[in-house]
Amino acid sequence: xxxxxxxxxxxxxxxxxxxxxxxxxxxxxxxxxxxxxxxxxxxxxxxxxxxxxxx
Length: 55
Hints:
Elements (H helix, E strand, L loop, with lengths): L13 H27 L15
């Protein structure tokens, strides 16, 4: 996500990049934080499903 493209075609498909980032980075962190629920025995964190907003 931190790379700068060398071409003049732009940044590519931003929505696809955001979905890959959410799956590879955010989802993994959410899964780890959700483990607190099992460790503490109660729900201490909750996450909404990932969705791109249409603006």
